[in-house]
Amino acid sequence: MSIPSYASSVPKSFLAYPGSDFDLESGTIRRIRKPKSSQLHPVKMLKSFGNRVRYFYKLHPFLAFLISLSFGMTILVIISIYQSRYSAVGSYREFDVSLENYPFANLKNLVMVAGHSIYTSKSCEKVDKEDSWFLEPYQKNPGQAATFLAHIEQGIEITAKDEMALLLFSGGETRKDAGPRSEAQSYWAVAESRGWFGKEENVRSRALTEEHARDSFENLLFSVCRFRELTGRYPSNITVVSYDFKEERFAHLHRAAVRFPESRFFYVGTPASSTAREKARKGEALVRQQFQEDPYGCQGSLHRKKLGRDPFHRTIPYPKGCPEMQDLFRYCGAAPYPGLTSWKGLS
């Protein structure tokens, strides 16, 4: 059967009305208006602002440069101020949260015994013998070990008489050949072996260590920070125990460097061994002159000596425990520290 010719072709679709709106009454096509974009479109605003800036820069290039520079400097100053304040307050709050209750919050006076050597004997039976201690060549004198014991005993005596005192033995791991033992731990162990010279019950619970100091200035500075770490406050009074020939260095140079009130600073000195007294005084005169020129021990020979007394590269935790002192810790100069201290109101 043949297919009719009219059936072979597919009818074309008929578009009754155009795609636009058709007005039946007028017979015309109305174009659909597109909604106008908002005049506050952010992209267009930015482009417009950018065009104006470029136009202004072409007319006044130098003035535009000065304005840009001033704006940039202002932003940097604001950011630096914010960061410094945030870091100081943040570290202070973080510290206070981690130590809500200070273990020695009732104590207010500091007794610091400065370490001078490390105890290396396997037992504590011969603490008064020189071969039980690691001694530098200039320390190898008869009776030297006895002077260390005198410092320990003196610190214990002073603490026993003051129920508000915290005793700190201060000194780090300063000698490589002595191993990772600190001067402070050595003194504490010797005191323990001697039964705290008969005052164990009264003193032992209030005797701790500061184990990072590398010189006499750090003995004082770090012990003040350690006191804050343990008590939540700064000491009302400070008593330092060391050799009598070091009194000028501690009581005047170091005390003045941290700006602690002279009326609340006390020094108890014990003599060097009779065989080393004259040599010790000459050596002290040289060190004292160095600290007069470099009160914070942060330059020259004092700084190099300090680095040499850190053979195990210990990370110093301060001033995390005493955030109010962070500017003092960072200060380095021949003039006294110009900033405020937390003990400024003491007299």
UniProtKB/TrEMBL annotation:
Q: Which UniProt keywords apply?
A: Membrane, Transmembrane, Transmembrane helix
Spans traversing the lipid bilayer:
62-82
Q: Would I find Membrane among this entry's keywords?
A: yes
Report the protein name in the record: DUF218 domain-containing protein
